[in-house]
Every structure is written in structure tokens, then in C-alpha cells.
Design the sequence.
């Protein structure tokens, strides 16, 4: 067995801010991952667009934003009009402009994305439009007359907020039951801090709530202080936007040792921290996983001062769910990514993790096990759907451990819809969750008006 890293374990670092960290009011804070465009840069970039008639970027956008139309408006000095086009299809266009993997969606499909050229910076143009409109207090939505119907939404994340906004527009009263003390779900608690600066998640929630007819009840934990049956009884329809609350375990002895943490929990703490320098950060960090959460936690701990950060993934580079652009961002901050590495043992001394033993899963190689020294190990191998009804009175059809839904996001239970990470065909993207909420709202509206298929 070989040792891959040899420096002595130093425990927590001094958290000296690295590149990507600034000091605000004496507190360490993250800086922008991708600086926004100013008005002149947005005009220059928008003029590069061909304004395709059958634009592939529209098809590539999960919410179907008319990309050439909004870019044309920017080129015509009308960012408010551009924002209206964006927000009509994606009410969380501001967050998606910051966190959406555009390099694998709209920008990848751009006709200029070819050798010798580069795609239009659609994400940055979308951010320019939505940020400009929000800063100016532009509102583009009005409510239809009150319908007399009420919809209960469980979860105040992207899917829940999207569904709530569209239902409110259609004249329905909405109540969101949110377990946490802040609304926003993944956008508030789960996205990397360098993607969501200046309290943007909450500013976007306030923008969405301005439509009216939406009541948010915080501290409402399904199965604890409220049941699904109670919510059904109080409303004419229910939308489940639960996300995924239960964490996957790596299944090794010592998983509860000091220094072994769930990446999602740590990011949640990080996002709510007023002073990043107060967060515990290891000197040698190992992240187990290959998705966006793995990249986010690795990049953030490196920026916070970790001396060595390694992502260990059990399969090849082509199988990683994290986009190539995100992987490159991590690597530019000295995060090492190791492929074909599966953990087989946590090394623990005096109840503290000191390393991880791995075996090679490369089918073309015959390698001995190796050890990565670590004083902090993050699990970033996905999450599970928590039980919805503790009493098992309401049974849902599941697929791969998540809720099975149809194209309108209807579950197997009459009068209950679902969307976001909790559904079986979800891809764990904010933009897809927004689309789920929008489609469910339209289906619920038809259902309440007696026009269900």
C-alpha cells in the first residue's frame, strides 16, 4: 500500500483568505466566480449573436427561454424588455444566470460554439438583464382575479417558488410550508457561496413574493409538526417540492468520526456564516464524489485556506456529473481530481480521521491500494428522499428512490403534484426545478378549472 500524500497533518489552518476571498467589514467573504458584464460589455457581447430563427439554444434551455429575443433586446438598449422575456419562462432567471451549467446547455448548443470561435456568453447576458431589471424595481407580472382556490406547497426551494409564483399569477392563493427559517432551498443553503453573493437568494425571493397571494410558513417540518394529510385537508391541491434531505452514506467503519462530514451540511453552514474565517477548515481535505457538490465543497475549502484538497471519484472523467467548466475552475485553484478511486477504509486515530484508503477501480490497471492523508473528509455522493408520510397512510409510486411523476408532474396520488430534486427524472439543477414548478402550476390550474385530461 502506498502513501500518496506525505506532509504531516496540521489540523485546522489559520484560514488566511486565499485568492477568491476578500475582507468586508473585517470579515472574510468570497468574491465573484464570474464577474458580471457592465452595460458596454453586454452590448458588445449581444452584437455577436446571429439571432437564429430556429435557435438551438432555446431547445437546450430546460425552461424554454427565447434566448435570441432577449439578446436582441439587450442589443437594442432594452435590458428591461430582455428581463421580461427571461422571467416569463424562468422566474429565477437571476439565480440560473449565476449557477446554471450553461456550458452544457444553451452555450454548448450555440451555433458559434465551434473551433476558432466561442459561444455567446448567454449566462452573463441573462444576468445583466435580470440584475438590471431587479435593481430598477421593474415588475412584469399581474395577478388574475382571485379564483377561490388554495394550493399547499411543501418546500420553498426553486421548484416550490416557481410553482407558487405561476399559481399566484393565475389567481390562486398559495401557502408554502418551509421547514427552515429562510426561503430559497438550494439557492439559499446549497449553492457555492462564490456563485450567490450579496444575499442574492433572498433578494430574489422578495422579488418573487411581490406578486402577492403567497403565504410562507417557516418552521413547518413535514412529519413533525404537520402531516401531508393535514395539508391536503386545508387545500384544493398539493405540490411537493421536498428536495432531498437524507444523505447517502459511504458505508465504511468510522463514518461518524471527527472530521468526516456531509458536504451539503457544511455548505449550508458556510452559506449562513457571517464570517467565513470562523469556519473550521482542514489542512488536508479529501472529497468523495464527482458531482457539482463535490466541486463546490472542494473549491470552497481550498479558497478558505485548506493546504491540500483532493476530489476522489470512483469512475472516469467522462462520468463525472460536474461540468468540465466547473472542474477546470476547481483545478485552477489547485484542487486535485483523482479518477478511478473508491474508498475502502477510513483511517481513524483517537476518534479523528487521519486518512482514507482507496482501491483503484480502473479496469485497465492493476494497482495496489493507496492512502490519502486527511484531517477532513467530505461525503458528496448524493442525497436520498426522506419519508413523506411517517404513518405510511399515503403511498407514492417511486422510481430509483424518488417520486414517479408524469409529464405534467402529477404523482400517483390524486391531487398531488411534485417537482425538483425529489422526482425520479430530475437532474438536480435549479433550472429544471423551476420548469417542474411551472409545468405543475399549469397542470394544477387546469385541474382546478375542471379541464384535467
Sequence:
Amino acid at each position: 500500500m502506498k502513501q500518496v500524500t506525505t506532509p504531516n497533518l496540521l489540523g485546522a489552518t489559520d484560514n488566511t483568505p486565499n485568492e477568491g476571498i476578500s475582507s468586508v467589514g473585517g470579515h472574510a467573504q468570497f468574491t465573484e466566480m464570474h464577474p458580471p458584464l457592465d452595460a458596454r460589455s453586454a452590448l458588445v457581447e449581444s452584437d455577436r449573436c446571429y439571432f437564429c430563427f430556429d435557435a438551438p439554444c432555446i431547445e437546450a434551455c430546460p425552461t424554454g427561454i427565447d434566448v435570441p429575443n432577449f439578446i436582441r433586446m439587450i442589443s437594442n438598449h432594452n435590458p428591461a424588455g430582455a428581463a421580461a422575456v427571461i422571467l416569463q419562462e424562468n422566474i429565477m432567471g437571476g439565480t440560473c444566470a449565476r449557477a446554471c451549467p450553461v456550458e452544457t446547455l444553451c452555450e454548448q448548443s450555440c451555433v458559434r460554439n465551434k473551433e476558432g470561435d466561442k459561444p455567446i456568453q448567454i449566462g452573463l447576458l441573462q444576468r445583466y438583464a435580470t440584475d438590471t431589471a431587479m435593481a430598477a424595481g421593474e415588475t412584469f407580472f399581474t395577478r388574475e382575479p382571485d379564483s377561490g382556490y388554495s394550493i399547499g406547497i411543501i418546500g420553498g426551494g426553486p421548484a416550490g417558488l416557481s410553482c407558487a409564483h405561476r399559481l399566484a399569477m393565475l389567481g390562486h392563493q398559495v401557502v408554502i410550508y418551509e421547514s427552515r427559517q429562510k426561503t430559497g432551498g438550494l439557492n439559499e443553503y446549497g449553492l457555492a457561496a462564490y456563485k450567490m453573493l450579496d444575499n442574492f437568494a433572498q433578494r430574489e425571493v422578495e422579488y418573487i413574493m411581490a406578486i402577492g397571494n403567497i403565504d410562507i410558513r417557516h418552521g413547518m417540518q413535514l412529519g413533525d409538526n404537520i402531516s401531508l394529510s393535514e395539508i391536503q385537508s386545508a387545500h384544493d391541491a398539493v405540490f411537493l417540492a421536498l428536495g432531498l434531505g437524507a444523505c447517502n452514506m459511504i458505508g465504511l467503519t468510522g463514518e461518524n468520526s471527527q472530521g468526516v462530514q456531509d458536504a451539503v451540511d457544511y455548505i449550508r453552514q458556510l452559506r449562513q456564516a457571517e464570517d467565513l474565517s470562523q469556519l473550521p477548515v482542514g489542512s488536508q481535505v479529501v472529497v468523495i464524489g464527482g458531482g457539482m457538490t463535490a466541486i463546490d465543497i472542494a473549491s470552497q475549502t481550498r479558497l478558505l485556506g485548506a493546504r491540500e484538497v483532493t476530489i476522489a471519484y470512483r469512475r472516469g472523467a467522462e462520468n463525472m456529473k460536474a461540468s468540465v467548466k466547473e472542474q477546470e475552475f476547481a483545478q485552477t485553484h489547485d484542487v486535485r481530481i483523482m479518477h478511478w478511486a473508491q474508498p475502502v477504509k477510513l483511517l481513524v486515530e483517537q476518534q479523528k480521521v487521519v486518512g482514507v484508503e482507496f482501491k483503484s477501480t480502473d479496469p485497465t490497471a492493476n494497482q495496489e491500494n493507496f492512502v490519502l492523508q486527511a484531517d477532513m473528509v467530505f461525503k458528496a455522493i448524493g442525497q436520498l428522499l426522506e419519508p413523506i408520510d411517517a404513518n405510511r397512510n399515503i403511498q407514492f409510486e417511486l422510481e430509483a428512490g424518488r417520486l414517479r411523476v408524469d409529464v405534467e408532474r402529477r404523482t400517483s396520488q390524486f391531487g398531488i403534484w411534485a417537482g425538483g430534486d425529489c422526482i425520479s427524472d430530475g437532474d438536480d439543477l435549479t433550472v429544471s426545478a423551476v420548469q417542474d414548478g411551472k409545468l405543475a402550476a399549469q397542470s394544477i390550474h387546469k385541474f382546478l378549472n375542471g379541464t384535467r385530461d
